[in-house]
Amino acid sequence: MTRDRRLWTRLLRIGLAAGRGTPGDRLRWWALFAAAATVALVVLGTVAAVATHQGREQRNEARGPILTDARQDAALMYREVLDTVDEVQHSVLYLVPLTDDAPLPPGLRAWPEPGQAVLSPELAARGRHLGIHDRYGESTGTIGKDGLAAPSERLAYVRPAHAPARDAEGWWYAEGFGKALPIGEMVDQRPVTDPLLTFWALTGVPALALSVIAARVGSLTRDRRSGLLHALGAGRRHRAVVQVGEAAAPLVLGTLLMALPQLAASRWDLRLPPTGYVLDSRDIRAAWPTASAGLLLSVLFLLAVVVLTHRAPRDRRSTRPGAASSSVPHWRPACCGLGVALVVTSQYLPERNALAPFALGTVLMWGFLPSVAALVTRRVGAGLAARGARTGRAGQLIGGRWTAAHPGVVVRLALAMVIGLGIVAQLQVWNSRLGEQAELARLTQARIGDGVLAVQATPMAPRAVDAFARTLPDGAFLLKRSTTYDDQGRGSTSLQGSCRALRSLDLECPAQLSPATGGDRRIEEIRRWSTPDIRVRAVAAPFGLTAQDSALVVAERGRLSEVKRAAFAVLATAEPLGDTWASGAAGKARANNWVLLYGVTGLAVLALTGGLGAAAEFVRIRGVLAPLTVLTGSRSVFRSVAFWHLTLPLLVATVVATAVTAWHSLFFIAAAGEGSVSWTVLVAGALGCVLVALLVGALGARSAIRAARSWRPTAD
């Protein structure tokens, strides 16, 4: 037992020494360090997402009103409406206590007085320039963190200045708080798997690619060392211990580095650019046990990658060290084909169930597409070698044989380019998903701004409508809008209001409903968002609003804040025409910011992956090509070999990746029903990959030329 322990300890020490003892191992050390940090980032990001999701649900359950149908037992009345600040929607919660001991919602220390409001810190800060502090009444204090799903949530609690009647329409009755009823931004809460799938696809896959590349950096020296250990009688377990010792230090240090941002996030509330979302430090702090276990598992996972990607001697009976040519296992192209099949079949599934197979198929397709490109280049390499032998071109012969014998080199170098091109295309497609109605809303607001505001209110008596109209700012007028449809589905919209209101739109003042003739640009926009048939009538007496009616406020530009203040005073809302669609598009753009965050992180990881793969190939190629200067008497052979072995395979991979990227983007647009492909972006990305291919070949040749100048024969 003691002898075995001493053997394992010695093997581990051999691995630790090997990690820093050869020329190529410095690059390998930093590659493993970077891979450990990246994988730890993905693990911690996953833990943070799950912990944040659970924390949001717990806080939402604590603040959700417990509704009741027994009005006599209710402690409060409750109503929720939506408002926007800079195209970001937020909830405005009207609360009316009915008893002296009515429970407070979490985050409030005391009931606001009638006509007062309590805002979340984010809403108070972001809406300051729009007069948010007196839009719903006098602002008093801010909502505490216990009452918010996240520190960055925008929310307002409002106590109306005049309590509504107990039988008022549009109100709910509650006994208190503590039920999982979605309010605020939790109304649109999606399963945690949705952001995680996107995160894993855009950041996790590049992290896995970097892990594989890092595990194979310096593989020539390591394979020779493994062959020597095999010749000395070492088994698979003995070699694995040496490999673990070789990789342990950089993996542990890289993992511990990522614990620093975890510590910061558990101490302070951190805002994530460019999303604007603020992580709640309490959620991150509560997840420390899970995060610690995740960091340990990430180290063990990378150690397993290092051991499993190690190329063992092929001939188990021979003890002669030797290098074996690499090959592409058949299961890799099969996995790529499976990914394509999942992407295709996802369109036939229900929308809610289609994301998971689409994301999984995308990951498999992009992860194993370089292997398909390697198979293609292997056949190309064999053809180049044969052609070089016939024509007597040494560079083509050597480069073609290397490409045919070592397709794994192509996989490692093309991995970053192929996945990077796919990520760039997906980012562009996701950000192009605006929608036709949202585009029309943006055009309307660009033409007339807030010159026409749609007012939504509960049924209002003529006296209440007249009081509302009197509180509007100077130059703002109220119109009643009613839309009816005939048996053929043709709609007609009537606008009724005072003569001053109609004349402000350059319309006549008929006593009976008459077709609207003339009018300024605002009438055209009202037609767009109502019906083409607009009829108008001047009324002298105040009018009322039923549940089927709505109202329009026509005013000069720049009166939005004043009109909103007047509308909320009577428990109504006012928004520019099409604002619901514009806000929805803005919300989609903010969701795309998460895709941008994950994608940019993934692209940075891929850039590092490509750089490490190219650097490792330079280290290998300069030592192998150097003796050719004696055989050929010319250094131009280095450029030829580098072109055929490095540049050409990467160009082939670029062509394959560009074709698949175009198909994948078009398929996604067809399945989603929106978005567009920017061929300029795709062509620019492909040209970037072409430049990278040329640069890799040039640097490989330059590295070999420099090594040839100092090469001397050795007895190895």
Number of DSSP strand runs: 16
Q: Strand arrangement, largest sheet?
A: 1-7-2-3-6-4-5
Low-confidence stretches: 318-325
How big a fraction of the residues is strand? 5-15%
Q: What's the tally of helices?
A: 22
In short:
By secondary structure, the protein is of the alpha+beta class.
Provide structural commentary:
The chain is of the alpha+beta class and 716 residues long. It has helices at 2-18, 25-63, 121-126, 193-216, 219-231, 236-257, 259-267, 281-286, 288-308, 331-345, 351-391, 394-405, 407-431, 436-448, 462-470, 499-503, 521-528, 560-569, 579-625, 628-632, 636-672, 679-709; strands at residues 65-67, 76-85, 88-97, 116-119, 138-142, 155-159, 172-177, 271-272, 277-278, 452-456, 477-485, 491-497, 514-515, 534-538, 550-554, 573-576. Strand 4 (116-119), helix 3 and strand 5 form a beta-alpha-beta unit. Helix 2 crosses helix 6 (236-257) and helix 11 packs antiparallel against helix 12. The two termini are 37 Å apart.
